[in-house]
Amino acid sequence: MRGLLKAGVVALLVALMSLIGACGQKVDDGTQPTGTPSLPALTIQEDTPNMLLTWVDSHGDTHSALKPSEVPEEGKPLVRVVISDREEGTRDPLYVVDLTKPGGGGFAARAMARREWEGVIAKKREAYLGQFAPKTAVPNPTGGASTAPTTSSAQTAAGFVVVIYGAEWCKPCHQAADYLKSKGVPFVMKDVDEDRTAAAEMSAKLEKAGRRGGAIPVIDVKGQILVGYNRSELDRAVAKASSGTVL
Description:
Blueprint: H1 2-23, E1 43-44, E2 51-56, E3 62-65, E4 79-83, E5 94-97, E6 107-108, E7 110-112, H2 114-129, E8 135-139, E9 145-149, H3 153-158, E10 162-166, H4 171-183, E11 187-191, H5 196-208, E12 218-221, E13 224-227, H6 231-243
Parallel strand pairs: 10-11
Antiparallel strand pairs: 1-6, 2-3, 2-4, 4-5, 5-7, 8-9, 10-12, 12-13
């Protein structure tokens, strides 16, 4: 009888110790931050094959290049890298590289969360568009009125700038621009006849989207590439971009 009682006490103590140990362990319930995103190591060079680089200008517009030497100084500090024959870095997280800091025979890429990358673009666009925002009178605590720039509701709602690749003679290009203007969606028009850089940029985006041909306009709505002007397609793309569902 005493042996059974002693065995029961020992079993109870073991159970209590296991319970205490479990209470001290942290369980990942999906609410804790996972830390810095990671990707396999990647170093790019001038002649790295199957490479597409994306840099951001001071207006918050993105541009494409195939070699580091093609990226202008303003875009070199933060450039997204996509290697077309590898899956890593195409979704989230992304590969980015600082082309102002060469080392080890190339440029070492690092991982960046897609949300952080999009935040950089949005911040530049907001700063640029804020220069053109109308100034409205706002109450002054001391009486009277003061003026402060406010971003228009259309710009705030959109949060992005549509890029139209077209030409002066292209009627559908101007129709697309007029329609976006009537909807209050910010846009820029790039003439591919007059600007070789714009033409190369358009070609790179078409190739990346798997659309090698087609007539202008070519319209980039936050990464969604439309060929030709179709009002309903443009509406859907703008709505998708505004909702933040674009990959």
